[in-house]
Amino acid sequence: MPLVESGATSYYVPTVTPPSPSPSRVALVRCADYDSERVHAAVGRGLDLLGGANLFVASGERLLLKPNLLVGSAPEKLVTTHPAVFRAVIRHFAAAGAELSYGDSPAFGGTTGASRRSGLTEIADQEGIPQADFGESRTVSFPDGGLIKQFTVVSAALDTDGIISLPKMKTHGLTRITGAVKNQFGCIPGLLKGEFHARMQNVDRFAQMLVDLNRLLRPRLYIMDGVMAMEGNGPRGGDPRQMSVLLFSTDPVALDTVVCRLVDLNPTLVPTITYGEAFGLGTASDIELVGDPLTSFVDKDFVVDRAPGSSTGGPGRLSRLTKNYVVPRPVIDAALCTACGTCVRICPVEPKAVDFRDGYDWAEDNLANDRPPVHDYDLCIRCYCCQELCPENAITIRKPLLGRIIHRS
Ligand code: SF4
Ligand code: SF4
After folding, report:
1. Is residue 341 within 8 Å of 373, Cβ to Cβ?
2. Ligand 1 centroid from CA 181, angstroms
């Protein structure tokens, strides 16, 4: 895609506008499990319902597949896009003549390790597609940004002809669900993600940033893996929930809205949907459903935070009292904590809002410290990165007593 040079940064100009039928079409396709043949057929059906793979790519064009690789995690943990979905997408778009690559910038660790542990490298090697270089990035101007006018993005996401986004259906501490809109956060280079959390100390601003990022990158198509979803303490430590569905759309706001309807969550509680509609990324109301009936997938027992007003978002400029007595906070279960230090490393604020009380010598990698770290809730901005990435599922988000009372009333 062309970049128009302008001083220190560049203007990013997408060459292809994704097909955007009105109303926005979302295809739902039943898929009972990750059997390779079944997933292949289901992905083919979903693409056909939107007009076929050839609608999204011309022969010889370069497509970047962007799975959810939050961290390297075995497929059965349901943290990442399943390899069977990844393989099916590769095969359908390769048959349409696309030159494919894939990649993501995980929240923790490198792309190569995360991809290998999640089972995607093996599939990519078998199918003969290269991993894109997610180590290079550059800064581009985005004058149309509603909030963010300049992004630093991995070059692989800028230099491709188009992106196919492959989100995973999961809950999320900050935005309630992690979906199609949020999946592009992985196009921000590793360490800069924490910087965004530190800068956007409010869930509304964070959501606006995610919407702008999607408006900048404009993936051509979103295919969500909801065959086995994650409920509860997602996006890493939640529990499996069979939803048996794959979702397809060119509109990430419409797709995420449909996900809300599947799990009986009011879409207005998801800030990426609210601001996605407000900033013109997509629609939450003008949606055409095709494929299998939505009602056949609805699961009202899916565990997700449905409480109105109990936003688990960052507190912004809220007073210390409000922050500490109303806004949900991350809490460590000492019985589960292995003192691995991941939460301390990932915490984006300085000084750290979660740390080992006696200090921790990273230079010596002093893992002799076997006591759990401790949160300082005055410093904590409630970004929930520590909850998101704790490998032991030892951190949950809890509402303080006053917050529980207010949110019930
Ligand atoms: S990431 Fe989880 S297991 Fe590791 S130190 Fe923090 S709370 Fe303990
Ligand atoms: S302690 Fe956790 S929730 Fe608080 S700022 Fe650090 S990473 Fe974010």
Report:
1. yes
2. 28
